Amino acid sequence: MSEFLDVFRRPDFIPLLVTHIELSVVALLLGVLIALPVALAVNRSPTLSAIAINIGNIGRAVPSLALLALAFPLLGFGFATSLVALTALAIPPILINASTGLRQVSPQVMDAAKGMGLSGAQILGRIQVPIAAPIIFAGIRTSAVQVVASATLATFVGGGALGQLIVLGFQRNQPAIQIAGALAVAVLAIITELLFGFLERAFTPKGLRVARKRRGK
Amino acid sequence: MPSPGEPAKAGDTLGLLQDLQPKLLDWGWIGENFGDEILPALIGHVYLSFVSVGIALVISLPTGVLVSRYRKAYPPVTFFTGILFSIPSLALFAFLVTVPGIGIGPTAVIIALVAYSLLVLIRNVVAGMDSVPEETKDAARGMGLTARQILFGVELPLALPVIVAGVRIATVTIIGIATIGAYIRGGGLGELIFLGISRNFPTRVIVGAVLATLLAVIADLLLLALERYLRPWARTRRA
Q: Which residue ranges traverse the bilayer (chain B) (predicted)?
């Protein structure tokens, strides 16, 4: 037991935890910054939206280890490789949900907004985005959980993060390190899931709360 | 078995330089090792994924049907399977291999893959059962069908497209996670990826990653086609 607790007192535990969080947060932010503008830009055109959604669907099928592995021969070992791969992993769920969400605002609501004399940009900002917010956020939540989970794999391409403890446990045949690392990763993933579940509810406009549905999983 | 071909054939300086900077894609290696390394890895991957989805279905179908009847059990079931689903795969593997009787190997990988499928499958079985209109069930009852006949002859066939949609998501997820299973000797395409990384031989990494991706995308499209075929009334509408 003390052997197990000692793992959390290792000098490298906190740096690995910090790297894990850093990697996840930056990848998620970059993913949002890429996917959201694209979804907003294509939302006027049904064809472009469908293309964006289809690209997103194919992107979601790409295994996370495959993404990291493919980035590795091109970018070599290190933090940047993991960051690029994790960003690529974060994009599809956000792109799919944002494109779908923006497009499924009911035609009556859009007509009413046009009838009130709102411009295209105003409709987007004041009507479409708030109505789609819960769906967009559900996509961000899916991405966040995936990124935190996949950051564990960064260790295979030299990105550090908590997966390193698991791998170290395997290499030295020390189950205590392996289990402690696994536990830290699992707790981090579950906290992310719960935190984003809470944020998702907070981001739902009051008027939509009654009709709230969870989509995009 | 890892085969020769990738390390140095260094006779001259140029060859030496090429060994230090390995080519991204060595087609010769692919040709030489297709039969005894690449194909077995691919077949192993398909096997791992199929067996896991199969076992997961055997568990999820009855559980989903039961839970759709006894609604109180639904939230705890989704909570438990949801927690399982959010545990990162490498962490779950690390836990499982320390359990006595499991250890390193395909068994641990299959157990984890089954665990990851449960949430999606059970949720879709319940959603499928919920999608059967009350009037249809009333009509079946009125025709004198027994509860069992209604379940197998009416409810499950009508729920099938939604269940297949769940199988689709679960299969794609599992094909992806199965690559990581190679780390605990589960076999499959991940073996090429891990070996390629540890030996700094990009061709192996790329072959493994590209095949895993193709496998996932093809499975996704095939199951999507099946889903559409089972739901003829929705074929004209956009998904």
A: 46-67, 79-97, 103-122, 158-184, 204-226
Residues on chain B touching A145 (C-beta within 8 angstroms): 86
Nearest CA to CA, how far is A167 from chain B (Å)?
9
- The answer to whether the Cβ–Cβ distance between B86 and A62 falls below 8 Å is no
Say if the Cβ atoms of B175 and A63 lie within 8 Å.
Answer: yes
pLDDT digits (tens, 9 = 90+) for A96-153: 999 999 988 888 888 899 899 998 888 888 888 888 988 999 999 999 999 999 999 9
A145–chain B Cβ distance below 8 A for any pair: yes
The reply to whether residue B88 touches residue A66, judged by beta carbons under 8 angstroms, is no
In Å, how far from its chain's centre is CA A175? 30
Domain of residue B112 covers: 32-231
Residue of A nearest to B181 (CA): A65
ipTM: 0.86
B64-102 pLDDT tens trace: 999 999 999 999 999 999 989 989 999 999 999 999 889
Asked if A48 has any chain B CB less than 8 Å from its own CB, the reply is no
Domain span including residue A25: 2-208
Cβ <8 Å between A61 and B82: no
Residue A205 at interface with chain B, using a CB cutoff of 8 Å:
no
What is the CATH number for A146?
1.10.3720.10
**DSSP class per residue in chain B:** ---TTSS---SSHHHHHHHHS--S--HHHHHHHIIIIIHHHHHHHHHHHHHHHHHHHHHHHHHHHHHHHSGGGHHHHHHHHHHHHHS-HHHHHHHHTTSTTT-SSHHHHHHHHHHHHHHHHHHHHHHHHHTS-HHHHHHHHHTT--HHHHIIIIIHHHHHHHHHHHHHHHHHHHHHHHHHHGGGT--STHHHHHHHHHTT-HHHHHHHHHHHHHHHHHHHHHHHHHHHHH-GGGSSS--
The total number of structural domains that make up chain B: 1
